[in-house]
Structure formats: C-alpha cells, structure tokens
Protein: tRNA-dihydrouridine synthase
Organism: Sinorhizobium numidicum
Amino acid sequence: MCPKDMHLPLSALSSSLRIGNVEIRNRAALAPMSGVTDLPFRMLAWRFGAGFVVTEMVASRELVCNAAESWARLRNSGIKPHIVQLAGREAQWMAEAARIVEANGADIIDINMGCPAKKVTGGYSGSALMRDPDHALSLIEATVKTVSVPVTLKMRLGWDENSINAPLIARRAEAAGVQAITIHGRTRMQFYNGKANWDAIRAVRDVISIPLIANGDVDTVCDAVEILRRSGADAVMVGRSSQGRPWHAGVLAGVAADPDAMGVARIFAEHYAMMLEFYGTEIGLRHARKHVGWYLDRFAPDLPATEKAAILTSTDAALVSDQVAAAIARSRIETLSEEIAA
C-alpha cells in the first residue's frame, strides 16, 4: 500500500497529456533502452497500455549513411504516436536524420542527452553533451528548425555532482522550441548506481512550463505517485523496471493488471515468438536471451543456475517457451506453499 501521506491521486497517472500538438493517452511511458525496446517489446508495452513508447536510440550519422541497424530501429507497427529517439554530436547529422525520421512517419523526435554508456559518451554524444551546453543547444536548435513535429529532450541531472546543469539546459531548450523534457534523476557518473534523486528534478520543473517527465527507479505505483509529487513532473517514464515485464507501464497507468503465473508464461511465449519473427531465428535467439533472463530472474528467481544456463543457451524455441513456463509455474507454486506454511 502507498503511504497515507501521499497526496497525489493515482488517477493523475491515467489522465491524458499533450506534447505540442500530439495527445498522449496517459502519463506512464516506456523509456528508450538500446538493445531492449525494439519493436516487439514496444508493441507489447503499447498493447498493455503504456502512455507512449520510444524507439531504441538511433544514431543520426549512421541513419543518414543508410546503416541497416538504424533503419531497423525506425520500424513501427501502428503505434501512435511514433516517437523516435535520435543521438549524435553534430548539428548537420542531427538535422538531416530528423528530416529522414519525420519523412518516415515520426510524430515526435526525442533527442538523447542522457545515455551514460562509454561507447556513446566516448563519441561525445548522449550525456557527454551536457558537458558543453552551448554545443548541445546547437544540436537542439538544428533539429527543431528542420522539422514540423514536436521535438523533446531526454537528459540526466548533469555530468557529475559538480555540474548539475539540467535546469540551465532545460530552460534554454524550451526557449529553442523543445516541447517536453525528460529527466533521469542521476548524473552520468552515477550510471545506474545509488538512488535516483527525485527531489533534484524539481529544479527543472521550476524553470520550464512545458511538460516534464520524471525517470529513475520507478518500480511500483507508489513510486510513480511519489516521483510526481516530489519532482512536480507531469508524467513518469520507466526503463529497467520494465525488463521482463513489458506490461509494467500500463500497470502504473492503471489500465493493466499484473498477470498471474500463467499469464506471464503466455506473454513470454508471445514475446519470444515475436522476437524470432522480427530478427529471424538465428539472430533472434541471441537477442532474446537477455529477455529470457529477465523473465526468469523476476518470476523464477530460485531456478538452479544450471537449468537457467540450459534455457538461455538452447536453440530450440519451443523447448525454451515450455521450460520458462514450467519454471515460472513451479516458482509460483513454491511461493504459495511457503505462504500457506507461514
């Protein structure tokens, strides 16, 4: 149960929101996660009620140069709005990529200034842009001026504890035409360590009038309500807490319910089949392994390591689905037995 002193009603998450001229159906969104939020994952999250979903990060220069992976990340399947996240370090490539993305059906373009991965920041993209606000603004301005669809921005609190500049960048981004901002309540140097600072996000709320979306460590409905209260944000975005449960944003929004063990097994089987179809069997098996691991970690945490390893390395798709379902069912039965015994 949520603490009694939570003043924000749960209905705050189920109401709609506007980003520019685009209506968002509720206020619990799925974060863009490279290597995670591919089209199969987004389709499931959308079906279970996420307010909006965002593509994996698309590298702007690679897209312009026709890299196959970048084009694959643009794919959509009837999800509206279609939100594409772009990353880059040069205004020229960001503008050209934005033009391509808009021409290929994007309803909103999100600029990545939050990714902490070394391979991204090492190329002076992602959260590394926060170290040079003037340069970051040149990318934002080039993107906004190139397209007619709303442009949004996702970033962290700052590069490190000595450079908390999200409020400064947010204010300048709004002036440049950005129409919503998402803040992950950590610095880049924290990566995903420690606890997200929800209170620090409020400093951004205080300097912008456009929608603010809060991100970081939102695991439960109570977390979602509390981050809105403490940050003053208009919506929440969930990332890692959705791994192994693509329905999670819909649960936070109050439009879906957590499935029982049989329901989890059915969703997993569908998710697994979708990935194999999307990527092809050989590549799909590799991409699916991390998802298999997340489902097992959440719903069969006591599965022996040898059994888990056998499932993760299996190339028999039907067998994997059966074994995951059996592991989840067995774990649930054991949990119920322990609860009855207690």
Q: What stands out?
A: The mean pLDDT is 92. The first helix runs from residue 39 to 47. The domain at 10-253 is CATH 3.20.20.70 (TIM Barrel). The CA atoms of residues 91 and 139 lie 4 Å apart.
